């Protein structure tokens, strides 16, 4: 091995010698001991054998000592903006030390050091972030759909990967049993004053630490009422703009004032604002905080779960948002003439989601397909041009699912457990479901299911049109859901017409949804648009074959069956169809039914390929980390 030479011509600078080479630009920090940079990039195969650090003292002379660093302390890696390792902190026990020379580098021997160095090259150090989720709902505390699932599961997956994560959501109290979900949240005894709607509003913060995540609930009287987070039996709440403006302001204060775990999150954090309810957050960072030097190192990402909802209110309400007057243009939104209520309507409104898209550092959607669809006139709901202009920072990441809750080998709601290696239990689940629903028990009869909201978006009208012809085939159909009265009544009527073939379960029941997912052979999802969709993921995990309209996240996650691929072994996990018509749906169903009845080996291959895919939130979390890294690579988009 070659020995390292102490450089003699650098009396005024710290330096690093690696295998006889001097790397300049290193520093000695007298207050905390010794700091040095260890440059690894581009040296994958170089043998690093020993290290020499030289530092000048006050009189300018060079000092070197042959002293082992056996008593030193090796701290965490220093990283540059891209996440590459650029150095470590080595602090000797003596706080007065200004120079250390070592031939061991705290390693047990030189060979270990060389091996560790090469391993570091191959496994980059992962950056960790302080992440603030701002959301109107987070399961299990509050949930009406996919937004609650995402904000209830993704934070835990990110926390498990080493990030510090806070979720800020309202503390909804309606006087019912659901209030018990907040039983473990304690009052932090911190009050924040929020200035909006022409007055000063005081909010309180409740906190629960669970699964590595700080769950923070904003407490205010406007969140204490019967109903869902957004409305009741009479419709949407009239003060939703106020309620979610309050949430956004409180969320911006939370990292600064809440001493969670003994210290605050601070200013260098990343805000993930979900849908229009939290869309004011990126605007507040840019307009209210950064001009005064606060959050200058923070970043914001707006996550779009459903662009059809944008938080549009009359232009006269702008002053309620708590933004400076000069920022009106960021949220100004003028409806086209054809969309106005009457001839005197000027169409002037404020659109907070539009403002977030305009100023956020990055934009995310819940699938790659949906990230493209929202840039089109058909899918952008008026925001397609703005989104197209920011396409360079627009990404889509498919949602994950709770693989513990949705697991056919452990599911407590189903009649028999099964797995990709033993599918026998699925037949038992099917016959048990037929018995529960009062259908003839026929294991070989194709059982087709639908689970979802009964409305126009979910394509229930397409199923309605297809049912008369579908019932001419040897099949059984079960539908679970609630929604528009016309579809609920149609389901009941259809059950009366086809007593041995059709069952309707009006309402929603979680255990029943698990049993339908496990017991059916085919799951229908003819949605007109679907940002991501979860039921098709649940179905594939349970060996149930999805038939979906080719849109958004459905197109991304369901791969068309091709029986001739892979040397006749086949590929794909289901069927997609387009255009969205009852005729096309029937054609696809006939193809699937024929495969089920006549090609059992192909059907089993479909089932196993779907069950073998990775649907975990950890997989999604890795992709989110990449977007977080990109957000911090550039300065804030609005400074």
UniProtKB/TrEMBL annotation:
Keywords: Amyloplast, Chloroplast, Glycosyltransferase, Plastid, Starch biosynthesis, Transferase, Transit peptide
UniProt enzyme class: transferase
Entry EC number(s): 2.4.1.-
Protein name: Starch synthase, chloroplastic/amyloplastic
Gene3D superfamilies according to UniProt: Glycogen Phosphorylase B
GO (cellular component) term, any one: chloroplast
Database matches in InterPro entries: Glyco_trans_1 (IPR001296), GS/SS (IPR011835), Starch_synth_cat_dom (IPR013534)
GO MF annotation: an example: alpha-1,4-glucan glucosyltransferase (ADP-glucose donor) activity
Biological or metabolic pathway of the protein: Glycan biosynthesis; starch biosynthesis
Biological process (GO), any one: starch biosynthetic process
Signal peptide annotation: none
Catalytic activity entry: [(1->4)-alpha-D-glucosyl](n) + ADP-alpha-D-glucose = [(1->4)-alpha-D-glucosyl](n+1) + ADP + H(+)
Stretches assigned to the Glycosyl transferase family domain: 441-589
Stretches assigned to the Starch synthase catalytic domain: 130-388
Organism: Solanum stoloniferum
One Pfam family, short name: Glycos_transf_1
Cell compartment(s), UniProt: Plastid, Chloroplast; Plastid, Amyloplast
Family: Belongs to the glycosyltransferase 1 family. Bacterial/plant glycogen synthase subfamily.
Lineage: Eukaryota, Viridiplantae, Streptophyta, Embryophyta, Tracheophyta
